[in-house]
Amino acid sequence: MSELTRVHLLRHGEVHNPTKVLYGRLAGYHLSDLGQAMAERVAGSVADRDITLLVSSPLERARETAAPIAEALKLEVGIDDRLLEALNVFEGLTFGVGDGSIRHPKHWRNLRNPFKPSWGEPYRDIAARMLAAMDDARRDAAGHEAVLVSHQLPIWTVRSFIEGRRLWHDPRRRECALASLTTVTYDGETIVSVAYSEPAGDLLPQIGKPFSAGA
């Protein structure tokens, strides 16, 4: 008989980023107080689940989101570079019209092809590395559940790939809120469903959401 395995893709909590830069893969960006509360809320929501594997992106905000889950479930946190945020040439800059980096002509060449995208890691490459990480988690947690802590763009890209949507998209339309769970269920080696939930939904900021290419 086949066995069901669930792989939960957890986006990290809110980050302390008062200057509103695209932090991408930069070191030194940690969860805010609200982000810590989000992480604790997620840990409480999964504490009674059959989770046997916990793996995180190496970035601080992801590891800090994983920490309360590790404590609640008495699990070690594995680190997997395949869960990293996508590469982005605007890393470390503000992004927007007004005083953002796209008002400078020197950056326009990086915006020439939104379908690839020309400003960063190709969508298909993101989907491929995420699927590989998920498949390893499925194997290692076979018959149980795993949590992989990652970032908005990688999670949304792999979900779009699984569900057969085009990979290029409007970032404002991603269904992948802070501290949300995108749950992929496997029957044996086959993906049979994708579900989405927001265990910390009531903690989400209520005032405008920033552009999230570096989330």
TrEMBL record:
GO cellular component assignments: cytoplasm
Q: Which Pfam families does its entry note?
A: His_Phos_1
- List GO molecular-function terms, semicolon-separated: phosphatase activity
Classification via InterPro entries: His_Pase_superF_clade-1, His_PPase_superfam, PGM_Phosphatase
SMART domains to which the protein is assigned, alphabetical: PGAM
Query: Which CDD domains does its entry note?
Result: HP_PGM_like
Q: Which Gene3D superfamilies match?
A: Phosphoglycerate mutase-like
The name this protein carries in UniProt is Histidine phosphatase family protein
